[in-house]
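*** Fold description ***
***
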Amino acid sequence: MANTAERPILIVGATGQVARALIERAARHGVAVVAHGRPVLDLEKPAGLGSAIVDIRPAAIINAAAYTAVDKAESEPERAFAINRDGAAALARAAAVLDVPFVHISTDYVYDGDKPAPYVEDDPTAPAGVYGRSKLEGEAAVRAAWGKTIVLRTAWVYSPFGNNFVKTMLRLASERDRLRVVADQVGSPTSALDIAEAILAILPKLEPDRPEAWAGTYHLAGGGEASWCDLARATLEVAAHHGRRAVPVDAITTADYPTPARRPANSRLDTTRLAETFGVRLPPWRDSLEQTVARLVAGAG
């Protein structure tokens, strides 16, 4: 990768969980970054992205911006595809003009969730909703636009920032005496802070003259597995250790909690390829959850 001491890494998306985690961890490691979202870089207006990015002259581009409203996407597919496919492709084309690595964040929703074991990167994709289809088409679009692209599929992202499941559980536990959470969907809870650390560890290994050694699709997710109910109970258990009141969590089924978009029953991601290629493996999800919940309870989000 180009010398980042002179040229910053561009983070597309300034307010999302992964973007904010990248900004925080880059500062901790002394890595120069520039982060832009709307209006400077608006993925719904792809025509203007290229010139704005060329002016920044980044050493690498990380696309941490996306349309992530899974249920709302069912009623506004045009926006989902405009951002997740067309906007992402425009970013990849800008990376091609600059001849720099392009890192694209994707999702477990590209799978239908019917596999009984963790998904590997070469498993057939079959998204069940608009959001998953828009992200899958975005993957194809960025690969077609630029050969020096790495796609990182992640799942069940939480952090001290923005809106996410862990923060919602803490809020609901302060408002209610009992919670009901789905227990028949299983996945790989993933800290955005861990995602950021992994990306920053991967970037120096993206040798521009050897894209065949690294370009492609990888799974990037927390170690281990859990149901949403498991994650809720673990969140509140950690919070109780920090002085929050304990609230029981009842297990329910997906049928008990219908949503406009179908969620994958299995979102577990096998991360072996990432570990073998880059020597990067995320910590167990419970370890990372403890750190995040401690920050949230302390009000240090």
